[in-house]
Fold:
Amino acid sequence: MIAAWKSKLARVVRGMWLTPAELDELENEAFDNEANKGSLYLVSQETELKCPVCSSTLKRFDYRFFDLQLDCCPEHGFWLDKDEDSQILELMRGEEERVERKFGTEDSWAKYINHLRSPSFLTKVKGLFHH
Structure:
């Protein structure tokens, strides 16, 4: 009960603690395509902060290679400072738009290439040179 109270107080005052599943749920509010999210982090550095679950030193990392640094306990979860949850949602919305734009462009290009390969188009081009 005390741990739950401390967690709620921390959220109001400074930030919030999220488990890996809760961070995933937060991201999924904006972008739920796991395959296109990219790596959460590869490189981290130790901080002076402690995990509220096991008291291990938290590690700081660049969230999915964006210019947003988060702190984590590899075993228990993530500390988000005030408003970092909003920043994650904004980054994931941008990532979703980027992926949709990329696949939209690839689909348009594929349709264009298929159009160029169509018999009617090739027949027209051949007709230009055989007259």
